[in-house]
Design a protein that fits this description.
Helix 7 runs parallel beside helix 8. The protein has ten helices and 14 strands. It is an alpha/beta fold. About 9% of the residues have low confidence. The chain starts with a strand and ends with a helix.
Length: 318
Amino acid sequence: MKVKKILVSQPEPADLEKSPYRNLVTKYGVEITFYKFFEVVGLPVSEFRKTRIHLAEYTAIIFNSKNSVDHFFRLAKELREVIPDSMKYFCASEAIAHYLQNYIQYRKRKIFYGNQYFADLIEILSKHREEKFLFPCSDEKQTEYTKLLDKAKFKYTKATMYTSVPRDLSQFNLKDYDLICLFSPIGVRSLVKNFPNVAEENVAIAAFGTSTHAALKAAGIKLTIAAPTKTSPSMAMAVENYINGKGQDDVVISRPSAMKKDLSHGGRGTTTTTKKTKSVFANKAKYKQLQEERKAQAAARRAERQAAKLAEMQAKEQ
């Protein structure tokens, strides 16, 4: 499939050269436009007071995004609520856990995070059912996160702290693009709001995540590229496979890995690991080939760095 121009519904990476989209630009000559399809707006403190939720009354906070971290501490400051040092923080990923350093002394708090998926965090939460959980989130009625929490029968309070608002996309003409990449249901809503007839446009749609796939189906929009899959764990890899004419394989459903990391007690926390549950690859030969390719790429990068260091040392000696 010939793809010349792609519209990606995310902010442009700080360093495109180090992003997974670099290969699409250099190897295939693809022109990529990055633009976030929505913006996050914090709930005013006056509106939040109406919920009668008092942050300090809870013993544990569940964070599923950096936005939830930002707006939790924003409201805590505006409400002049003091968050106790005993508060436990449960984060959907390691990146979110480390992001907490912007607001708290990381090494002195009880912080837990999942290995890769929110489902991993469910297993960790199951060992702390006695806690009083608060879940800062957007105004979406139900998400894949709340579905997992409800299915696991957790007692938690959903606290709406921000909302996602579609942005104006009138500067774009869909006919100028061969492919549009979406990553969330709000991205789909923004696309439909700005282009009500998008289903009739001759443009391919790529979507990441089962909730995004479901949003497209509900809107009556054909999904061309689904990610993540067994051979395409990232959007960039899924697009590359599409360009090369490779068939679409099964979408990977996130499964818990049962990995827990406790960063309490001054950073000297314990790590408890049980047997991981991984995605099953139907084609083991293809999986092995993919692993070998990754190892080769990593070896090549190491060789390049070593060569650069050697050249630098030789230049200094001369």
